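Re: Re: token formats

Sure, here are both.
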Amino acid sequence: MRNPSQKDVLFRSEDIKIIMQENSYPEKFSKSNMIESKASFNLLFLLSPNIHLEAYDCGTKFLFKKNQYILHYSAQESTAELWTENQDILKYLQIQINYQYIFNLIEPESNKESAEILENMIRNNYIFLHKETPPYVTVEMHMILREILSYSRKGVMQKLFVEAKIIKLLILVFEQFNEKNTVESIPKTPAIIKKFIDENYHRNIKAEELSSMVGINQNTIRKEFKAQYHLTVTDYISELRMLKAKKLIIDKDMMIKEIAIECGYEYVQNFTRAFKKKFGLSPEKLRNE
């Protein structure tokens, strides 16, 4: 059984450290101290709701919603305290990257764009997306995090894999913030559709229902949604269902048939086929591993 408050170092190299904090059995409250090394960038992904954070070095306080994240630069070694209340689970992933690694990666002396990116990172401009709100983890970011957490090889292959995924995460972060100044010009339809799917992906959502809800034809909905989120509506629904299914299977509290229904599949055969296509093994095999 896992320790009620367990912090796992999932990966460590000279330049990168990945830490997962998960308190699976909270009592009155959950608490953890996060250390940021001197001259380091820290990607912090908040994976459970209502996480409080207090940074000791500057007295800054945050209250994060589930699936928000920040990219923070720490010039000196510092400590932050994270906690939840009312028996909420405390779960977060910290990816710490040395300054020199980022400097060599971005090469700020090579061009103006690279210099501006590094300057924005050092000034901690990758914390508030807009209106003083931390950004949310996108579906693509979730997929990368899942790949990092599930990668089983060790040694040089793991190092190359992790570095490639972190570079991709940073690209997504930069892209997300580059779009913040044009947030008002982004069509509202994809955001409305996404919110509806997030709340209803477990049931059978028909294209006609989405079209009727926003008053736009189905082809326009598909085009705008894919342009905004880089996934089709169908793929996004499937991704949410598979993420939920995998979690429920690992928790082992429900029958496979019950999980299929919970995730929006009327027939367990269709669920098994979709799950195997997504993860390369059946729900039963994953549960028995």
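Second one below.
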Amino acid sequence: MISTGLSSTVLLASLLTLTGLCSARSDPPRGVAVGFVFDPKATCDPPCQHAGVCIRNNTCYCSRGYEGETCQYANCYPKCKNGGECLRPGKCRCPPGFGGRYCHKVTCDGGCWNGGECIAVNGVAKCICPSSWAGSKCQEAICPQGCRNGGICVAPGICSCPDGWLGGACHTAVCTQPCRNGGKCISPEKCRCRPPYSGARCEERKNSH
């Protein structure tokens, strides 16, 4: 509230100064227009907020950066984007996935890895991954050939194979002692023998009677 001891001339000069500051902006002026009637005995209930001045009964003149019947709402210029809320002049509270002074920047929690790009898709921030990566942060490598027998894709097209398996897709079994007589290693340390051979390494020949 404004003290009644302050002369109306000083108040009017102060208000005109505020009006001049507001009208100097590129935005259209808000609140009361220049040339309003100021009543030094006016009362506003509820009172004007954020340094607003009660110029007539229940009529507030708002200071720069605020608006509303009691100057209760802050203004942000430019406006808060992407659903952001103006907390005070020039300060926005941004929803998840957005940042920057006016919530104009898209931000992905934890960032995007391996060359991924953070963009807004239907109002939600997400990572768009290059063709060889997947996952919410582009953290999962893609192996087009697949990783068999318990292998794990650790980089695009590269599998990490468990003991006993080799090859680009972990598809080649390893037998530390080679299979003999045309036998084939079909799983770690296991041979498939060709007749008439048998044994762990196809080293035994069956006698035919």
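Helices lie at 8-23. The first strand starts at residue 53 and ends at 56.
- S.
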